[in-house]
Design goal:
Layout: E1 9-16, E2 26-34, E3 40-46, H1 55-61, H2 65-68, H3 74-85, E4 89-92, H4 95-109, E5 121-123, H5 124-131, H6 136-144, H7 154-171, H8 179-186, E6 198-200, E7 206-208, H9 218-224, H10 227-233, H11 239-258
Parallel strand pairs: 1-4, 4-5
Antiparallel strand pairs: 1-2, 2-3, 6-7
Helix pairs in contact: 6-7
Length: 259
């Protein structure tokens, strides 16, 4: 079943030192770029994370410290990755909750202004969980009738994710096959900052989703308690979360400036 594309879409998978979006680093990334004419381009990078790889992470993806010695750090290849995904849409497995947030962190850390609003995203795991809740290996077996060899190898996982989506489109006739519709079906709704610290209410206001101001408008709290913004910026929140808070603060500042 063909995926309807109006611009390229990049399926990608990341292996990292752990699952802490703000602290952990990417050690492997694979991108499979699909063009509207059916052409494909793929690239895999091993990356030196500038921190030790915990043994519990190695147990999952098999990548050890010695495997990444001499490999480029993310900052050295960030621009190449950015150009590969630029003017494309993004897809992955659990990508809304992990791969995209940690990629955004690495991009911002490298000085590249990554803005998720420029991309439509498809999370194949969300589609799978809405239809048949299981893991990627089970999804691959269920939809493609194959065993997933080398699971948690980023290249094997990213290719499997693309094949699973094509099989989902073939199996579920009610699923529309264009990226915009799949984005809406798999999108993590009402979240402004990828990591879920900031929600969007029915009136499109940013709302705190944590701490003592949970449920209150961000813009109101920054006016009532200006020091709270500084506390956030100096704490270990993800960089993309801090970026969204800064956008809200600047919007308030610019609005007051015009009055």
């Amino acid at each position: 079943m063909k995926l309807i594309l109006h611009r390229p879409i990049c399926f990608f998978d990341i292996e990292a030192t752990g699952i802490n979006i703000g602290k952990d680093r990417i050690i492997e990334i694979s991108i499979l770029k699909i063009f509207p004419n059916g052409n494909k381009e793929d690239k895999t990078w091993l990356i030196y994370p500038e921190m030790p790889i915990p043994s519990q992470s190695t147990a999952i993806h098999g990548i050890k410290d010695e495997d990444v010695i001499g490999k480029p750090i993310f900052k050295d290849i960030a621009l190449f990755i950015f150009r590969m995904i630029e003017n494309s849409d993004l897809a992955g497995y659990n990508s809304n909750r992990f791969d995209i947030p940690i990629l955004a962190e690495e991009m911002l850390r490298a000085g590249i202004s990554f803005d998720i609003k420029k991309y439509k995203t498809i999370d194949v795991q969300v589609i799978f969980h809405k239809m048949e809740p299981r893991t990627l290996s089970a999804a691959y077996k269920y939809y493609c009738n194959k065993e997933l060899i080398k699971a948690h190898s980023s290249k094997a996982d990213v290719i499997a994710t693309y094949e699973v989506l094509l099989s989902q489109l073939d199996k579920y006739k009610n699923l529309k096959k264009d990226v915009k519709s799949l984005n809406q079906f798999s999108y993590q709704k009402n979240i402004a900052d990828l990591a879920g610290f900031i929600k969007i209410d029915d009136n499109k206001n940013e709302i705190f989703n944590f701490g003592k101001y949970k449920g209150e408008k961000v813009i109101d709290i920054f006016e009532k308690d200006p020091g709270y913004y500084n506390w956030i910026q100096n704490s270990e929140f993800p960089l993309y979360t801090k970026k969204i808070f800064t956008e809200v603060k600047l919007r308030k500042f610019n609005k007051n400036k015009k009055l």
